[in-house]
Amino acid sequence: MTPKRILIVGGGFAGMYAAMEMRRLEDAGHQVTLVSAENFMQYQPFLPEVASGTIDPRAIVVPLRPLLKRATIEVGEVTSIDHDAHNVDVRIPDGGTVQLEYDVLVVTAGSWSRVLPIPGLAEHGIGFTTVQEAIYLRNHVLSRLDVATQTQDPQRRRAALTFVFVGAGYAGVEALGELEDLARDAMRNYPKLRPSEMRWVLVEAAGRILPELPPHLATYAQAQLAERNIDVLLHTRLESAVEGTIRLSDGQAFAADTLVWTAGVKPSPLAGGALPVDEHGRVVVDDHLRVVGVPDAWAAGDIAAVPDRTTGGLAPPTAQHAMREGRRLGRNVTATILGGELAPFVWKNVGGVCSLGRYKGVANVFGINVKGFLGWFLHRSYHLWAMPTIGRRVRIAIDWTIALLFPRDITQFGSFEDPRGPFRRAAGS
Fold it and tell me: Using CA atoms, how far apart are residues 15 and 35, in angstroms rounded to an integer?
């Protein structure tokens, strides 16, 4: 058999797990290449705890090269796909472009933040989909406390201590809960500041928070946020953020230094024009994860419209689904090349878990609803179990133990944003 070149586009959950399932292909002499914008896979559900400093950022990223020892890892961004010619263009870190050829294409390019054309949002908003954004947001929140304690202007202080999160799904609620805990703990070291001076606002266009969970759990979560004096504004939209002034659809207008955008994601636009996509831009695949009507092409994860046999609809863009889709795709590609029986993707959602900050959470696992400390414990337990590699799990468990035994670390590395600044100043002098 002529060796096949399998190209995986995207190193997230689906891409990494697909590559792991293709080791038999590598043993048989076939070439597996994975193209990723980073040389690691990040475990996104732990981003809120990275932002709050509970978990070291390195603990939630899995280096791809040690895990996929026999695959070829290409660090870069695929900018175009020509499936007729069976090649892709890749922009590499030095700014140049290389072309990679393939026999079998696997698209697992994931999703981007779904940013709306709101005036001022691009200039002032902070996303929350990468470990880099989580680190930046932590530094930014802590820096606002420094601004607030040093200014003599009451309006400037109010703006520095106002934190707005748009989007009340898992990411928005968990990020807000963790960062509010961080800021409250940090304030103990700022004698001039009081927690009551802070204003935390959660803006949601729908009529409830956490739509992924049963209504009574969402109601409980909202009540817990309200107890912490967090404003939850439902049926409300962000209309403008020009010059740092937040204008909402309910008529409110106020200054805020911090605007975090967690209002959903959209599929990567990479496949548009190269592969068939649905009205939402997702690659159309069958329940075996083959691209419909296109030979030698497969897709999974957030970029794909994967049929969900358990609901009759489409699989949601969650980590637990992307992980299983990647595994099934890898096995099916292997069976197609080496000979074997293909199987459809079938996975029943085990439920959802959400942390509300320290020792509080909600969870719906296998139809069982829990809240409070047990919900928080299940959130941590599930994600620790799902975290790839034993080494990462141990690191996270150690970080959690340290957080229980010692005060929270409130170090703020603002200089990370411009690490060469001091050297340039020295050279300029």
Answer: 9
In whole angstroms, what separates CA 169 from the centre of its chain?
A: 12
HSE-CB for 259 with a 13 A CA cutoff:
25
Q: Which residue has the tokens 């691009």?
A: 122
pLDDT digits (tens, 9 = 90+) for 220-253: 999 999 999 999 999 999 999 999 999 999 999 9
| Rounded Cα distance, 204 and 170, in Å | 12
For residues 114 and 116, what is the distance between their CA atoms, to the nearest angstrom?
A: 7
Q: Are 304 and 277 in contact (CB under 8 A)?
A: no
Do 135 and 127 form a contact (C-beta atoms < 8 A)? no
SS (H, E, C) 322-391: HHHHHHHHHHHHHHHHHCCCCCCCCCCCCEEEEECCCCCEEEEECCEEEEEHHHHHHHHHHHHHHCCCHH
User: Could you identify the residue written with the tokens 């337990």?
Assistant: 381
95: left (phi over 0), alpha (psi -120 to 50) or beta: left
Q: Please, where are the H alpha helices in 192-312?
A: 215-227
Q: What are phi and psi of 283, to 5 degrees?
A: -65, 130
Q: Are 12 and 322 in contact (CB under 8 A)?
A: yes
Q: Which pLDDT score, from 0 to 100, does residue 383 have?
A: 93
Residue 358's pLDDT band (cuts 50, 70, 90) = confident
> What would the two tokens of residue 222 be?
């909202």
What percent of the chain is modeled with pLDDT above 90?
85
CA distance 241 to 230: 20
The strand pairing partners of 6, in sequence order, are 32, 104
The number of C-alpha atoms within 13 Å of 227 and in the hemisphere containing its C-beta is: 10
pLDDT digit string (tens) for 171-208?
A: 999 999 999 999 999 999 999 999 999 999 999 999 99
**What is this structure's pTM?**
0.92
Q: What is the pLDDT of residues 5-35, one digit of tens each?
A: 999 999 999 999 999 999 999 999 999 999 9
